[in-house]
Design goal:
The chain folds into 3 domains: about 290 residues, Beta-Lactamase (2-Layer Sandwich); about 70 residues; about 140 residues, Histidine kinase-like ATPase, C-terminal domain (Heat Shock Protein 90). It is about 35% helix and about 30% strand. The chain has 11 helices and 20 strands. A hairpin with a 4-residue loop joins strand 7 and strand 8.
Length: about 525
């Protein structure tokens, strides 16, 4: 809700809480109404502001952007101001939105305390009832004309729901998942008889073997999960959502209990306190989604992920077996140069094995390179540091999450740079430090390895060097990561690796990597 709510006219703390309740319930009502719903309150005597805006998932939005915070006046939206001032329901007011599309508006007054006898929405408030807001339902003209052709029974049920949300009486609505364009809907009256079935819902039930129309049949006779869910929702008087399996199909049902209101006096009369609205059950709207295909796809993905994890686990084990063989070979060779080559190869293999170990323990293909670096540093502390020298290995920086391919490249780069620093940077020094720093700079990732060792010899060039390690680093940085390799020789050696972030495809579509 827009923060300006705290400075709107005539709104107490209790009434603001009540408006937040309505805001939480607007989403499912917008979906089922196939309309945008806005909640306005008076900003001043002459203006009102949109405190909340719910847009439907069941079709294209009326507005291209959220209208929360939008300010109106009597000249721009007279029907809204009229409802806020008089408390009268404005019906089917035709106009145009800023984008130029024709729409139909209706405005429902929001009273506080709500006019329901025994309502819990007032939170025990002793305030004098008054209009505190207006609920505006905005439907594009094409959808409005389509709605007029639908069953009158469904139209009446939808009006009941829209009135209920203006009273804050759609409990549990905030817990429902969105109602989509491909979802079906049925209306069941208070006697448990089906009175309306949408075309999409009819197709769903045909898959269960119901070839004839369901209209006029009792839900209890269908031998589906609808009756149990309907009874539970009515008994609890709140919206419910259930996943069920019927035959070979998976269903998601959202049940919205509907209430009918009657009153001896209308709530906007001066004698409001003498007349209260009473409620009685009217029926339920059941929104149905066939989740069979998505569940099957999820199951296939889970099986695929399990297989991939098993492959990573086996690769890790195989690499560790190879590492064990190299250790045995290194202990047998007599040449110091050969032993050094085997040790370097062993560290490279173990660095790759660390990546596969992470992938075998996690369904995600995204790896925290800081955790990998911790493991690599620990391996060097155990196997590479000479007991005759006091060299401190440090790792600093923030967690950076990378896809597996880039994480593998980074692990090898860090391995090679640590190995180079320890072997060549401290040949003439007995003590010092090697520090690995990880940094996320917004558009790029920076990995820096710093040591206070001997540094590089004068005139050193990576292209002309005999060091296999630097050649590996250069190839990985420039070809795999599409980045830059920078060397700063002075008071030791500073090697900086920079590479750009990329996009990855997650559950919510294409987005920028958290750290890549």
């Amino acid at each position: 809700m827009h923060p300006v709510v705290n400075s709107c006219l005539n709104l107490s703390e209790a009434s603001i809480d009540f408006l937040r309740t309505i805001e939480a319930q607007m989403g499912i009502v917008a979906d089922l109404s196939r309309a945008d719903i806005l909640l306005y309150a008076r900003k001043s005597e002459q203006e009102a502001i949109a405190l909340a805006h719910a847009q439907p998932h069941s079709l294209a939005h009326v507005y291209s952007k959220s209208r929360e915070g939008y300010i109106i006046s009597n000249q721009t939206r007279p029907e809204v101001m009229r409802t806020l001032i008089t408390g009268q329901h404005q019906k089917e007011y035709r106009s145009f939105i800023a984008e130029g599309a024709p729409v139909v508006r209706q405005a429902l007054p929001v009273h506080f305390p709500p006019p329901l006898a025994g309502s819990s929405s007032a939170n025990g408030s002793s305030e004098k009832p008054r209009v505190v807001a207006a609920l505006i339902i905005v439907t594009n003209l094409i959808e409005y004309e389509r709605h007029r052709l639908r069953s009158r029974i469904f139209q009446q049920a939808l009006k009941k729901l829209q009135l209920m949300v203006s009273y804050g009486e759609v409990p549990g609505a905030e817990s429902l998942s969105p109602f989509g364009e491909q979802d079906g809907i049925i209306f069941v009256d208070s006697f448990g008889v089906v009175r309306y079935v949408s075309g999409v819902a009819s197709n769903f039930y045909r898959r269960l073997g119901f070839k004839e129309s369901l209209v006029g049949r009792r839900v209890a006779d269908l031998e589906t999960a609808d009756e149990e869910i309907r009874r539970t929702a009515l008994a609890q008087n709140r919206c419910l959502e259930r996943d069920t399996k019927e035959g070979e199909r998976y269903w998601v049902r959202k049940v919205v209990p509907l209430t009918s209101y009657s009153a001896s006096r209308w709530p906007w009369l001066d004698t409001f306190s003498q007349g209260r609205l009473t409620a009685k059950p009217y029926g339920v709207l059941i929104a149905i989604h066939d989740a069979t295909e998505s569940r099957r796809q999820d199951q296939e993905i889970r099986v695929k992920n399990a297989m991939i994890q098993e492959v990573h686990h086996r690769v890790k084990n195989n690499l560790q077996t190879i590492a064990g063989l190299l250790r045995m070979q290194a202990r047998r060779v007599k040449s110091e140069e050969a032993r050094q080559i085997l040790d370097e190869t062993l560290n490279r293999i173990l660095s790759i094995a660390v990546i596969h170990e992470f992938l075998s323990n996690d369904n995600s293909n995204i790896i925290n390179i800081k955790e990998v670096s911790h493991r690599i540093v620990a391996q060097f502390r155990q196997g590479m540091l000479s007991p005759d020298k006091e060299i401190q290995l440090e790792l600093v920086g923030e967690p950076i999450y990378l896809p597996a391919r880039q994480a593998t490249a980074c692990s090898l780069i860090i391995n090679e740079l640590l190995q180079n620093a320890i072997e060549h940077g401290f040949e003439r020094k007995q003590a010092g430090f090697v520090r690995v720093n990880l940094a996320d700079e917004g558009d790029e990732v920076i990995i820096t390895v710093v040591d206070n060792g001997d540094g590089l010899p004068p005139g050193f060039k990576v292209e002309q060097a005999d060091s296999l390690g630097f050649h590996i680093v250069k190839i990985l940085v420039e070809e795999d990561l599409k980045g830059q390799l920078l060397l700063n020789n002075g008071n030791g050696l500073t090697v900086t690796v920079k590479f750009p972030k990329i996009l990855f495809r997650g559950e919510e579509g294409w987005k920028e990597h958290v750290s890549l």
